[in-house]
Amino acid sequence: MPSNPTLGYRPSLDGLRGIAITCVFIHHLDVGLTLGGLGVDIFFVLSGFLITTLLLEEYREQGRIDFKQFYLRRAFRLLPALFCFLGAMVIYAAIALPSEVARETVRFAIFAVFYVTNWIFAFFVVSSPLLGHLWSLAIEEQFYFLWPITLSVLLRSRLSRRSILILVTVLIVIVCVHRTALVWSGARLERIYDGTDTRADSILIGCVVAMLVTWGMIRLNRIAVKVCGLLSIAVIAAYLLNLYGIPGKSIYTVGLTVFGLASGLLIVQAMSAPSGLIQKVLEHRLLVFIGKLSYSLYLWHLFAVKLAASFGVMRIPFAVLFAMSLACTSYYLIERPFLKFKARLSDSRRDYEDRGVDLITA
C-alpha cells in the first residue's frame, strides 16, 4: 500500500455496502435470520471509514477541513431522498392507516428530520411501523455533525498521528465498557442498541481504519491481507451460526465491538488486496449495483415489506421487487439529480459520488 493512498472509487466498498443492506432487508423480511444488527454494524464502520478518509485527504491537500462544504455535501446527499420518503409515508399513513398511527407517523417524521429518532427509541417505549428503521440514520447524521469538528481539532493539535490513533482507540474501549455497564445494570435493550453513546465504537473503528490506511501505517503482505479477510469472515460466520458459546448478553457488550472489528478487517482486505476470492465477491456486479442503491433501498424497504405482508407465499418476491423499484426510482430521479446539482456548488475534486461515497448510513 502506498504511503499516501487516495480513496478513489472502490467497487468492493459498494459491494460491502450491498451486503450490509441485504442483511438489513433479510432481517425485516422476518424469515428467521436476524441479520439486521450485522448489516447496521457494517454500515457504521463504512461510514466512519469513508468520511474520515475523505476528511483526512482534504486536510492533507488543503491544510484544513472546509466545514461549510462538508455539511453542504451531506445535506444534498441525504436530505432530498429523505424528505421525499417522509412525505410519502405521511401521505400514505393519512390515507391508509388509522388516525392514531397517522399522527404517530407525523411525529416520527419530525423526529427523523432532526435526526433524533434513535434517542426517542432509547428513552421512550414507542414504535413506528413505517419509520422505525431511521434510528441508524440518526446516529450516522450525529456522527457527521460532530466528527469533522473533532477531527479538525485533533489534526490541528500538537498530537502525533500515533497519539491520535491511541486516543480514538481509547474512546472505542470506553464506549464498549460503558455499554457493558448498561447491559449488566439491566438497562432496556433499546437504550443499549439505539443510543449514539453505546454504538459509537463501530463508527470509531471505521475512523481508526481510515487513519491507518490514509496515513500509510498499514504494511501488509499478501498472506496478512488474506488472514484479515478470513478472520473477518470467520467472525461474521460465527454471528450467523450463533457459535459464540457465551451468554446472549455478551452480544450487546463486547459482541458489537467484535463485529465492528470484523467489518474493519474486511475493509482493510478490500483496500489492500488487488485480487482474490473475497475481492471478486465484493466486486460482483449485482452486489455493487445494490450497494449504489443502498441509501434509497434502506429508506424504502420496510414500507415494501409492510405492504407485502398480506401476499402469503408471494410476499417475499413482491417485497423485493417493490423495494427495488422504489429504490431505483428514488436513486435515479432524486438522488442523482441532486448529486449533480451538489457538484456545481462544491469543489468537484471533493465530490462524493465521483469517489464512490454515496453512503447510508449510513
Name some characteristics of this structure.
mainly alpha, about 0% strand, 15 helices, single chain, disordered C terminus
Question: What can you see in these coordinates?
Answer:
The protein is mostly helical and 362 residues long. The longest helix is centred in the last third of the chain and has 31 residues, at 315-345. Helices cover 74% and strands 0% of the residues. The chain has helices spanning 11-28, 36-62, 67-96, 99-113, 117-123, 135-156, 161-184, 189-194, 196-214, 222-241, 254-272, 277-282, 285-292, 294-308, 315-345. It is globular and about 60 Å long.
Please provide a brief summary of the model.
The chain is an all-alpha fold. It has helices spanning 11-28, 36-62, 67-96, 99-113, 117-123, 135-156, 161-184, 189-194, 196-214, 222-241, 254-272, 277-282, 285-292, 294-308, 315-345. α3 packs antiparallel against α4.
Structural class: mainly alpha
Largest sheet: none
CA radius of gyration is 20 Å
According to DSSP, the number of beta strands is 0
**Low-pLDDT regions:** 348-362
> Residue-averaged pLDDT, rounded?
86
Number of domains: 1
Task: Give the overall silhouette.
Answer: globular
Tally the helices: what do you get?
15
Order of helices and strands: HHHHHHHHHHHHHHH
Percent of residues in β-strands: under 5%
Please write out the topology.
Blueprint: H1 11-28, H2 36-62, H3 67-96, H4 99-113, H5 117-123, H6 135-156, H7 161-184, H8 189-194, H9 196-214, H10 222-241, H11 254-272, H12 277-282, H13 285-292, H14 294-308, H15 315-345
Helix pairs in contact: 1-2, 1-13, 1-14, 2-6, 2-9, 2-11, 3-4, 3-6, 3-14, 3-15, 5-6, 6-9, 7-9, 9-11, 10-11, 14-15
